[in-house]
Structures are given as C-alpha cells and as structure tokens.
Amino acid sequence: MSAIVWAWAVVAVTFVWLGLQQKKKHLSLPPGPKGLPVIGNLRDLTLTGLWLEARKWAQQYGEVVYLHVFGQGLLFVNSYEAAVDLLEKRGAIYSDKPKMVMAGELCGCENMIGLTPYGDRLRRQRKLMLQALGQNRVHEYHPLLEIQTQNLLQGMLNSPDESQGIIRRYTGGLSLLIVYGYRVVSNNDRILEMADESLELLSNHIAAAGKVWLVDLFPPLKYVPSWFPGAGFKRNAAIWKQKMEDFVNVPYDYTKAEMRKGTAVPCYVSMLLDDAALENKEQTVDNQRDFDIRWTANSLYAASFDTTISAISHFFLAMIQHPEILHRAQKEIDAVVGNNRLPDFSDRPNLPYVNAIVNEVLRIASPVPLGLPRRITEDNVYKNMYIPKGTLVFGNNYNMARNPAVYPNPDAFDPERYLEEGVDEATMKARDPRNYVFGFGRRRCPGAWMIDSSLWIAIASMLASFDIRKAVDDFGNAIEPEVVYDNSVFTTLKPFKYDIRPRSAQAVKVIREAKGLSD
Ligand code: HEM
C-alpha cells in the first residue's frame, strides 16, 4: 500500500476515534436505580437473592441496567439479545475478570478459572477443560455417571430421611470421582468435608455476590497491618487462604500419589497428566502443565457442586408441588424402560417428557443466576448508551429465563412448553434454556455437557424409582415447602422437607440389584 493510502487510513481512523470520544461525552449511562452521593447503590445490593432485585430492575429499566458503588460501575445485562451482542459478539472486550484483591490476592483464589483474566493462560486452560469434558468426550463418562446414580438411589432407599445429605454426598462424590478419581464412601469423608467448607467460604464470604470488600475498591488497604483496628478482613483472609490452598492441593496430590502407586482411577487429572507425560520425552510434566491441571481441576470441582445441588433441589421442589408432572413422567418411563431395570443413556431420545422436565429444571433453577462477573476492558457504546471501561458485567440469565415473550406464565413450572405443538421452530429453539443458563461466548461454562448428562440420568433414575411428595406433620397436614435461597452466587435452596419412598417392591429390587460403587 502506498504512503498516501496509509496516511488517509490513519486520518480516517483518527477521525472515527475522535468522533467516538466526542459522542461518548454526550451519551448517558444505561438507566438504573438512583444511588446516593459517594456510596452510590451500595444499599440496593443484597447479600442473598440479588437476582430477585435485578429482575425488578430489568422490568423497570430495560435490557441493560447500570448501578455504581463508590464509583465502580455494575452493568446487568438482562435480555438474551443484549447478552449475545455484548458478551458474545463483543467478547474481545467483555471476557475479562475483575481483579479481586480480597478473593484473589489475599485469599489465594487468583488462579481459579472464574477469576482468571482473559488472555493466553485462560485460553490454554479452557482448551484443557474442553479437551476432557467437551461435547465429543462426555459420553466416555456415561458409565461412571450411571454407577454414581445407582449409588444415589441406594443411599435414598436405605436412609430416606437423610436424602438431603445423600444428595450432597452424591454431588460432591461425583465431581471428586470424575475430576480426581477419588471415591467418597461415607458422609463424613475428610476431603468432601474440606471441599464443602471451602465452597461455603468462597461463595458466601470471600467472593459473595452483593458483598463489596473495601479493599477491592481501595487496594492500598491491603497494606494495612493485620493487627490494625478495622483490619479484621486481613486476619480472616490469612485463615481462609490456608483453607483454600488445601482445597486446591490435597485432592490433586492424592491423585498424583495414586498414580505413582499405579492404583489411580482414570479421571480428568490422571488423563491429562498421562497425556502430558507422553507428550514429553522425559515422561515428566512441566511446571506450567502441572499448574494448569491443578487449577482447572479445582475450578471444575468448585463450579460443579452448588450448581448441581441447586438443580436437584429445584427438581424436588417441582415434583412435590406438581404430583401430576411426576406421575406423567413415571408413566412415560414405565412405557419405554419397563420396570425391570433403571433408565440408561440409550433411553434418552425416547423420553421426551423427562427431557422436558430437565429443561424446565434448568430454566426455573437458573443455578448461576447472574453469571460470574466479567470486566469490560475498553469504553463501549451500546444502543447509544455509554458503558465505561472497568465496569463489572453480570449476565442476568435469571431474568432471561423469565421472559414472558419466550415463556408464557414464566414463573410456573411447566415442562409442556418444550413439547407444545404448532409453535414455529425459531420459538422452540429460543426456549432452550441451554442458550443462556451456562453463560456466553468465551467464558461459557465448560461443564455444560457434563451436567446435562449427569442431571438427566439422576432425574430419570429418581423418577423411575421413587415417589416424591410433600412431607406431613404430626396431624397429617401437608407441609408446604418454604423457598429460601441460602447462597449469594448460586440459587441453592435452604433445605425443605419432603417425603420420598420407593414406588414399589419391584423398584426396591431393581435398586438393590444395581451395581453402584463398591465401598
Ligand atoms: C446446571 C449446572 C451449571 C450451570 C447452570 C453453570 C453455569 C455457569 C455459568 C453461568 C458460568 C459463567 C459463564 C460466563 O461467564 O458466561 C459458568 C462458569 C464455569 N462453569 Fe459452570 N455451570 C454449571 C455446572 C458446571 C459444572 C458441572 C462444571 C464442571 C464440571 C462447571 C464448570 C465451570 C467453570 C470452570 C466455569 C468458569 C469458566 C470461565 O470463567 O472461563 N460448571 N458456569
């Protein structure tokens, strides 16, 4: 290209850039609730159930809503279309993560994938996760998922009153088995308890949505000595950091020790360590690969626990509230699977109503309702609204799941909406909650295929085997479940009572004869 053409190109780009700067000055921020001087919307943020507030703001202000806390902008992206426009199409500037001084630097979580900045390291690590859990690999885990589900059923059969604990053990056990090849065989398993405690700390204290640490707003506060009055956050951070380090290292070191002994169960970690050693002629794993496997493994475990618990507890809630849905699903399973065996993955295409229940569970639960926060790396203009660089961005999938234009009567649990006849193909496609509950673009959930399978087999098997009803009190009155969220990032529910019992003597026989995991 000649020098003149170059010069014209530079002038044109400069003009466009200057025009944009000029335009931005005249544009307003997206609408949102009015804040107070200095603290902004601090008082509008709630520690649990922020998504309920965010839905109200979406109804009042529209598809993008802007708030600020001490000048830190927060953008809620409320419609699917806006999320695709911003989080997917403009992924180059909407995929970064906030630098969280408290969670990252002080509590040692900076290498968790959900907090990893957008760049080469993230791309490398996401590639590893998708290599092991992507759409074309997930069927390899099906036998493991079936066995773990049989275990779940056996636990529920033996101790129906402890089913909530059994579900926690199933969920934690499933992830520990798939990620680390670690078998959980008792409710008070050491690693399971440690992971449980770390996750509670992480999502309700360290990185709670709706909680703003002053040190994140004023990073120099991190230099305040721990003994200084008001520096309790530093004392807590020191204790939490040790717990987080154990959470990352203990299960990983377990798998490596098992591999050295030659007794490791094939799993995410062993598979990737084996691949890495094979690639390297000296049969060792370099530090970078070791680091990547260690941290992706921890992130997979951390991200799968509360999300799965949320989905399963919403399934129970829906079944006790809608016995007619439970019975219709059981009828479908009886007709396709019969009552001499449990459902397996080969039955899935023939169980449309069960599939519709799984869709509706994902939609109603919206397990990560506001996504995980992103950070925009450049000033941006969207539909004539100015979004400043550094704004934290939340994909409000809870609101997308309740869009009345896509889901008539959106608060009702209604699997029928996925089976409705006479609805055009585009509308049916738009109703699939997988379009948004797993997030968007370059940070979309890498566990999406895994959970789709594990949730399906668990729900199909529980429907095939148990009746699930409201519990009754001492006077025989049905106890209405109280829906209370107990977490600030995930829609996990405070435990509620229900009555679960095998459907028949034949169901008991089938569960007892299933393989399960040997203790
Ligand atoms: C129903 C269950 C689940 C839901 C609804 C869900 C949803 C999400 C969402 C919304 C995000 C943020 C995506 C974004 O920023 O756009 C995410 C991230 C993530 N999820 Fe899931 N998830 C689920 C289960 C799982 C499971 C089972 C695993 C692991 C096996 C997993 C691993 C991850 C990881 C590692 C990230 C961080 C990705 C990154 O920052 O690049 N998730 N998930």
From TrEMBL:
Keywords tagged on the record: Heme, Iron, Membrane, Metal-binding, Monooxygenase, Oxidoreductase, Transmembrane, Transmembrane helix
Cofactor dependency: heme
SUPFAM superfamilies: Cytochrome P450 (SSF48264)
Domain of life the protein comes from: Eukaryota
Principal place of residence: membrane
GO cellular component, one term: membrane
GO molecular function, one term: iron ion binding
Topology class, membrane: Single-pass membrane protein
Pfam families according to UniProt: p450
Residues reported in the UniProt entry to bind heme: 445
Pathway: Secondary metabolite biosynthesis
InterPro entries per the UniProt record, alphabetical: Cyt_P450, Cyt_P450_CS, Cyt_P450_E_grp-I, Cyt_P450_sf, Cytochrome_P450_fung
Family: Belongs to the cytochrome P450 family.
Protein name in UniProt: Cytochrome P450
Lineage, uppermost ranks: Eukaryota, Fungi, Dikarya, Basidiomycota, Agaricomycotina
